[in-house]
């Protein structure tokens, strides 16, 4: 849809704001340009509607070289939202939103209907807000009008340069949510600039990370979080977030206390422990806490008539186990391969440290999600 081919921008003889940018923005995607201040985000964006011309390279929209096009016509198909959206103060909200369609000499009734529809889409009741003036709206409401105004002429492309950066955190979250919801209906090609990584992760289909006028990494938020290209990306997305999202938890964090018994105990005792602890098998350990085997309820039931037997006689030997240093992925694979309900976790001395069960895994993940959403709620 939008293709940058070897784009450079030189402001002074020795300063390149952009260095050989190659970028393909797909139709209907929401791509976020992110990077530190001065990395070239705004310069990149403003080249799309020719507010800035490149020093070298070409930009194509739908295969057409935009430098061969009339900038005014080009901009009719490109909505533009900036941080302080600059609504015209002496015009009502409806007049502000209808400005571009009116310039395009569309049928007044049809664009008025459209303006009302758009205001409703961002939760501004047209009956209340259409006739108000910008100064009568909060910052968040004004930015909503800005988004709506960019949509009014129904452009294929929308450029948004830090549109929510001046808002308080709550309004900001709301507008991000609304943008995502809106995008599900309108499927525009959206280029969104931010310096806020959380915003980028939340809204982007793909993130394009810039530094010193170069693309450092471009990929989905998930892939960037999982596979940061280098230390700059790692630092930019924040080590703490990496640990939260990417590093799988250690087995230590997931395992639960095992229910154990000794090899010399009788079968009735075993049944009583199992009933009390609500488990269907016991891990049999010696006095040094080394795992000897597993006694399940079926084996116990099978041999229950024989009063002389102890757990040592009926336990299963050579059960699959996992070393504490192994990864969660290894553990899950072992559980699946061996079709077992749980996995004893051992240290290098074969001492039993805990068990990984399906339930412990589910509990851990649920707890993890709770803390994450709590952290996000506070941030
Ligand atoms: N008109 C200009 N003249 C000279 N330098 C500029 C001009 N516009 C931008 N720059 C420089 O180009 C670099 C990239 O700017 P910009 O694209 O606005 O960065 P960002 O939006 O990522 O903060 C910065 O170092 C900035 O100072
Ligand atoms: Mg900028």
Give structural attributes.
379 residues; alpha/beta; Rossmann fold; CBS-domain; 2 domains; six-stranded mixed β-sheet; four-stranded antiparallel β-sheet; 42% helix; 23% strand; binds adenosine-5'-diphosphate; binds magnesium ion
Provide an overview of this structure:
The protein is of the alpha/beta class and 379 residues long. It folds into two domains: 2-245, 3-Layer(aba) Sandwich (Rossmann fold); 251-363, CBS-domain, CATH 3.10.580. The chain contains 18 helices and 16 strands. The chain has helices at 41-48, 71-76, 93-97, 99-103, 108-121, 126-129, 139-152, 169-186, 197-203, 221-226, 231-237, 239-245, 251-254, 267-277, 297-302, 311-314, 328-338, 358-378, and strands spanning 2-12, 15-25, 30-34, 56-61, 64-65, 78-82, 157-161, 189-194, 206-211, 214-219, 260-261, 281-285, 291-296, 322-323, 342-346, 352-357. Strands 6-7-8-3-9-10 form a six-stranded mixed sheet, sandwiched between helices. A four-stranded antiparallel sheet has the order 2-1-4-5, covered by helices on one side. Strand 7 (157-161), helix 8 and strand 8 form a beta-alpha-beta unit. The model has no long low-confidence stretch (mean pLDDT 88). It binds adenosine-5'-diphosphate (ADP) and magnesium ion.
